Amino acid sequence: MAQAHQKQSTFPPYELLYHPGIPGRGEFIRLAFEAAGVPYTDVANDSKDGYGIVQKTCMNDGTESSDGNPPVFSPPALRVPGAGKTGKVLVISQTPNILFYLGDKLGLVPEDDEDAKFHVNQIALTALDLNNEVHDTHHPIAVMQYYEEQKPEAVKKARDVRENRIPKFYSYFERTLKGNEAGQGKYLVGGKLTYADLTVWQVVDGIKFAFPRESEALEKTFPQLMVAFYRGVREEKGVKEYLGSGRRLKYSMGVFRHYPELDRQD
Amino acid sequence: MAQAHQKQSTFPPYELLYHPGIPGRGEFIRLAFEAAGVPYTDVANDSKDGYGIVQKTCMNDGTESSDGNPPVFSPPALRVPGAGKTGKVLVISQTPNILFYLGDKLGLVPEDDEDAKFHVNQIALTALDLNNEVHDTHHPIAVMQYYEEQKPEAVKKARDVRENRIPKFYSYFERTLKGNEAGQGKYLVGGKLTYADLTVWQVVDGIKFAFPRESEALEKTFPQLMVAFYRGVREEKGVKEYLGSGRRLKYSMGVFRHYPELDRQD
Fold this sequence. Notes:
Two copies of one chain form a homodimer. Chain A is mainly α. Chain A has helices spanning 26-36, 43-46, 50-58, 95-105, 114-138, 151-179, 195-210, 212-218, 223-234, 237-243; strands at 15-17, 41-42, 77-80, 90-93.
């Protein structure tokens, strides 16, 4: 439970169901709660038998996740007691789906602006596509095999992602920042923090960890994104507190991994 | 323009912006309009200079797509004159974002059931993830290089996707169908057609084209998905008319490609 952020509120007891010990795709959901200052339980990390609940709900072979909700393909999932039809438990999955669901409720989309909500969503979806492509730099062939079994392919894939894909995505984020006058270079959509900002920030941060040399070289080309925006999001109240807390997990063997041989070599 | 489906309505003049000549990711949007019987313009295929408009809107290097909307990372995009703030043109992108936007408006989500809308969305997102993984079977290393330049890696990647990934996704769809009593094995969420059904159907259909031998072998394991559901969606009124029309483009060099060496060999 994010104790530091508990406050009087009408929020339901949100539960994040994800693997323990890694930021992974769960991190996009954590950042949304933390930036909004809304309490949530990180089930696998917050209790001893938490991962058993995650596995039972999200990784079973049955025809439902739990409580009459459809199966979950893969964590993360969000469990919300009392939010479902006629007061039941609601379970939804897929990272961008959870973010879209929470966006309104956590105040992480512009209010009363339907257009802007879909613009926020398209940017978050694009950042999550980049997240997947970066994952594939160390697992280009088979997700269930070890990195060491696909290292020659990983070197090739990482080079393409670093040299072609990351710049294409970063150019899009840079241009979006520049085109959003209301955001003054700090926000991608509108004049305050949205989950698009958090999602893009997390991917840029992960890429800085995975490819520090490439990231350093890219700063000159994308200063709005990689310097002004990146630093600005890090200083947002809820984000700053979270990043300084023990709840922020270290990158290790998840989506973002640092293998020096996959980074820029010159 | 989908002439066969024109009817009196209050729908705005929806425009699909996508590459010409291939089904690709645009096909998920086409299927939604066609199944709903709602008119739309397929800009690049319907007029001689249409692709110029797509390129100018979706593939420019500027800080907006058009009409004050943020840039588009990549087609498809949806252009809706009159739908934006204060009567402006709205442009949104990212396939699942467009489907979520249209779901309500085209009657392709259960009515008055917020939970079900997020369940529809999570299933569509998962099918689109599988779509991406199948794309990567012929382009595991670099999307801008030729297949022939990455064929050894493609053979390895395709084997993993066929043997491990497709069965994992198909099991999820099969179990979702079985768990949804209201759908009687025909629909993934609720008791009538949603864009989750259309999106899953398109991916199963594309995989049948790309990997016919593997698909045939999988039918025994996933009969609900690959036989009952697959045939049922194909017989839905709008879908059936569309598939028999010239508007349904043939698979060729897009996401779904048939290279016999990437299919099951025994």
